[in-house]
Fold this protein.
Amino acid sequence: MPSDTSNPPVPTGNTFDKYGSTNPLVRRLMAGFEGTLDELFTRAAPRSVLDIGCGEAVLTSQWAQRLGDGRVVGVDLEDPKLAAHWARQRQANLELSALDVTGGLPYRDGEFDLVCATEVLEHVPAPERVVAEMARVSGAHLLVSVPHEPLWRALNLARGAYVSALGNTPGHINHWSRRGFVALLARHGEVIAARSPFPWTMLLVRTR
């Protein structure tokens, strides 16, 4: 879907540094998330990676270091704060650029071994179209995660967050149960691993 250039999309969602947080609860939750992500990334064993919605490129940079000379590309919406973070990421095999993925992906069929979207698909309009594009440019696997609904909203309400929005995090326009998310991804490949690091759903999908 073409973006509206008169009102371009901007990054949305949580604005705190969840990877660098010192909050004990956040650290515990993120340890589960990152441990599961590492398990599935290792299983995929990619030689090249496209990271959709890479944010500050925390994970993207780690993957670039891990792959050595393997190509790693991260894309996200144009934003000065993100650009400032990216400017500090200097690795020969790492490319970071601004891209609105709702307009399609400018890459060849099967160009990347692994295409990732962690905590992204809940934010995008027409998520099935984005997933289809991800599957097109994937040569082997997709690695994706989203908040597990309605648990995510319940946890927000329990801590008194976003009460007027019934616990919905700002920018979340799509909501899936584990079963619903598996069904979406299964239309674009074989779901070979489904994990539930609390409170997320994370899938590894074989595309070819």
The first strand starts at residue 49 and ends at 52. Residues 1-10, 12-16 have pLDDT under 50 and may be disordered. Strands lie at 49-52, 72-76, 94-98, 112-118, 138-147, 190-195, 200-206. DSSP finds six helices and seven strands in the chain.
